[in-house]
Amino acid sequence: MMGGAAASLLGCGKDSTVPRPPPGPPPEGVHIPDVQSGEDVFGYVRRIKGAFDETLYKQVLGAANAFKEGDALVGVAAADEASRENARRLLENTRLVDLDSHPVRQDRLHALLLETEDRVAAATAEGWTLGRLKQFLLESDEAAIKALMPGLGSDVIGCVVKLMSDEELIAVARKVFNPLPGSNLGARGYLGARIQPNSPTDNVDDIRWQVFDGFSYAVGDVVLGCNPVSSTPESVGAIESALHELVVTFGLQDVMPHCVLAHIDVQAEVERLQPGTTGIWFQSIAGSDTANGTFDISVEKMLGYADGRSGKYGLYFETGQGADFTNGHAHGYDMVLHESRKYGFARALTQRVARAQESAGRAAAPWVHLNDVAGFIGPEVFRTREQLVRCCLEDIVMGKLHGLMIGLDVCSTLHMDVSLDDLDWCLERIMPANPAYLMGLPTKNDPMLGYLTTGFQDHVRLRERFGYKVEDRMWAFFQRLGVIDAAGRPTEHFGDPVWVYLQYLRAKGDMRPEEDIRAEGAQRLAEIRARGVPMARGHGANPWDLEPALEAELRRVYADAKKSLFAELTPAFINAMPEAVRLVTKSKDRTEYILHPETGEQLDAVSLDALRSLRARHGGRYDVQLLVSDGLNALALTDEGQLLPYLQALRSALTSAGYSVAPEHLLLTSGRVRAGYRVGEALYGGLGDAKKHRAIIHVIGERPGTGHHTFSAYITAPTAAVWSRAGQVDHNITRVVSGIALTAYAPALAAPETVRLLQQLAPVGP
Question: Does domain 170-553 sit in CATH 3.20.20.70?
Answer without folding.
Answer: yes
